[in-house]
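Researcher: Going back to the complex we discussed earlier. I've cleaned up the inputs and rechecked each line, so this should be the final set. Can you rerun the prediction on the complete assembly and write out the structure?
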Amino acid sequence: ELKVEQNPLFLSMQEGKNYTIYCNYSTTSDRLYWYRQDPGKSLESLFVLLSNGAVKQEGRLMASLDTKARLSTLHITAAVHDLSATYFCAVVSAGKSTFGDGTTLTVKP
Amino acid sequence: EPEVTQTPSHQVTQMGQEVILRCVPISNHLYFYWYRQILGQKVEFLVSFYNNEISEKSEIFDDQFSVERPDGSNFTLKIRSTKLEDSAMYFCATSKGFSGNTIYFGEGSWLTVV
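Model: Rerun complete. Updated structure for the full complex:
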């Protein structure tokens, strides 16, 4: 059974600081997604990572994938308040998605 | 920007009743998914659907659940006999292709079973 572990689960950070969210998974994967969810809202796709060493960046967010370590990271650069949300990683293996528990990020002025 | 549209946005139903949740996928998308999220918890995959048949399903997707695309546009999730623990937000999602394609989510249908 595929297990996906995200940490930290809660993250409070100051505007302008950098931080990394980690997503570990237990078996080989086909691909990995990162999503953002605002309170009471749906999920917004941020990144899809397919292969070892994949790196994608959009604005202040950068995601990477290390399939050998079974680890993906979501790095936040110079955080701003608008990035406050819950971030989920989701690992697809044999066609099925397994989500992490989510990391709730609060960016304070 | 094209959207995935879900109806109803909220439904309250009595335990044991049947519920149908509807989704209109983005028009040129071929892969369809249902997920659910119990309040305050993580998102759970239910089922994926391609070419008018189920591609994959999770352990949650038991005989009480079914999906179909009855008229070539709507994609539906049916829960035959609802239980209290079926109370959750149900998200429909679609993608153009399978691997490597962005998955677009609808706004969700909030199901409350009483």
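Model: Worth noting: Chain A touches chain B at residues 30-31, 33, 35, 41-45, 48, 50, 88, 90, 94-102 (CB under 8 Å).
Researcher: Good, that matches what I expected from the previous run.
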